[in-house]
Amino acid sequence: MPRKQEIVAESQPWWRDAVIYQVYPRSFADGDGDGIGDIAGIRRRLGHLSDLGVDAIWMSPWYPSPMADAGYDVADFRDIDPVFGTLAEAEALITEAHAAGLRMIVDIVPNHVSSAHPWFRKALADPRAPERDLFWFRPGETMPTAWVGEFGGTTWTRTADGAWYLHLFTPEQPDLNWGHPGVRAEFEDILRFWLDRGVDGVRIDSAALLCKDPTLPPVTEGRPHPFHDLDEVHEVYRAWRRISDTYPGDRALIGEVWLPDAERFAHYLRPDELHAAFNFDFLGCAWEAGKMRACIDRTLDAHAAVGAPPTWVLSNHDVTRHVTRYGRADTTFSFDNNLDGTPVDLEQGTRRARAAALLSLSLPGAAYVYQGEELGLWENENIAADQIQDPMYARRGHTRDGCRVPLPWSGDAPPFEFSTAEPWLPQPAEWKDRTVQAQTGDPSSMLELYRAAIRMRRAEPGLHAGAMTWADAAPGVLAYTRGPDFACVVNMSGAAVALPDHDSCLLASGPLDGVRLPPDTAVWLRLPARGQ
């Protein structure tokens, strides 16, 4: 049974400084032996998350779906796909997670539904069906716009009756018309459905894309974008916030908001809208001290303006794992920067990932851990083309499958007790040293580093201080303090640097060179008491 970790009342809402663990259900653990992860496997492995010390679990979509986009094409938001289990099992997982001291966050995808959704089937079957108004159908001999989709490619598909329908993602994911009151009412009811089942929060996929300019203008530089970040979308989240505020226990609304403009980003976090949003600026930032410091400052300033907590994210189910990114000459990430195939120094990438863990877990705000990050997993870039399942691959030549490979739990060869069957995506044989079993109890392992850092994060008073202060540091080095005597120093330069005066070393991401901090290494320090 998982070690119980009490959920206690705190002076501030839990989501402001939580460590939240993203579970990608297909790849976490398989309980029924079909090679695909499921709720039974998650329930069986809850002890791992409790031992890791995280505060909450965010579940990627687990709803009925044809899986055209790995479950982000949802056919029914009020049930569970049979490949993952049943609604009763999901309710049991919520109960068991709470008993283990873990809060639960579910994923809602409001921009679109599956083409198998009852609404769209009715809309497709009859041009006069009222359900057509719930989507973006347009007549005409030619495609209504030249908009490019989020996965690349065109955004309109023609139906048998000659109309066109909009899909910013795949044709199997028709976009909803959020100008229709029926769409808004439906998703408000879906929100209540999961809050009534005890979930502690909702992660909102593609949160800035919901509303579209009904005149369908072209994408033109210098003019408002026709479907990115329209002002009308904020009305949706104000309504959702009014609903979540009626529930006890500090329920949280967390947005996936990809926006380059920090001010526009902060609008989603105003006091009557979302509680938090993902910080993709930090995720995509280069491993360079100057750029990282500027990114952190932008993040803190944008969130302070609206009184919202920052979030710190290194990886997720859509991006190249950061062990791999940090091992490349170009350490940034964006969907316009195809990282596949360029050389990787995994040893260097791992050192930097260890240092990044101490950086992200010591900054003010909430931290997100993507499954496998705590094991130091790298991107599997050796998946054969005929095994790739990600629809982005056909449209952009980039696959996200490499970061979605099933976790290794124990043993010396695949499937590493993820399943008794062949996993749905291949695991690298080299992961035999990255299993949970192999790393448990090894003080030099990535897993034990994460366990120690999260445990210390809970206990260290300085890490509960609301702010941070930059300290003087050598070029290529980040140093900051929190509270009266806590400091974090991250050496991103190519040479060892002297550590500041300190009473003790609390935790280091790698071996220290006496009182010098080696390159690509981070350390948490106890500083001398002020006045001494």
Descriptive report:
- With 532 residues, the protein is an alpha/beta fold.
- It is 25% helix and 13% strand.
- It has three domains: 14-111 and 181-453, TIM Barrel (Alpha-Beta Barrel), CATH 3.20.20; 118-166, Alpha-Beta Complex (Oligo-1,6-glucosidase, domain 2); 469-526, Sandwich (Immunoglobulin-like), CATH 2.60.40.1180.
- The protein has helices spanning 25-28, 39-44, 46-52, 87-99, 118-125, 181-196, 233-244, 262-267, 280-283, 289-304, 322-325, 346-360, 392-396, 436-439, 446-459; strands at 19-23, 56-59, 103-108, 137-138, 156-158, 164-166, 201-204, 252-255, 276-277, 311-313, 366-370, 469-470, 477-482, 486-491, 497-498, 504-508, 516-517, 521-526.
- Strands 9-8-7-3-2-1-11-10 form an eight-stranded parallel β-sheet. A five-stranded antiparallel β-sheet has the order 12-13-14-18-16.
Fill in the keyword field for this structure.
Immunoglobulin-like, five-stranded antiparallel beta sheet, TIM Barrel, 532 residues, alpha/beta
State the fourth-level CATH superfamily of the largest domain: Glycosidases
CATH topology of the largest domain: TIM Barrel
Using the alpha-carbon principal axes, give the shape.
globular
- Estimate the mean pLDDT confidence: 94
The helix content, as a percent range, equals 25-40%
Reported for the largest beta sheet, the result is: 8 strands, parallel
Strand order of the largest sheet: 9-8-7-3-2-1-11-10
Oligomer: single chain
What top-tier CATH class of the largest domain fits best? Alpha Beta
Tally the helices: what do you get?
Answer: 15
Q: Which CATH-level-2 architecture of the largest domain?
A: Alpha-Beta Barrel
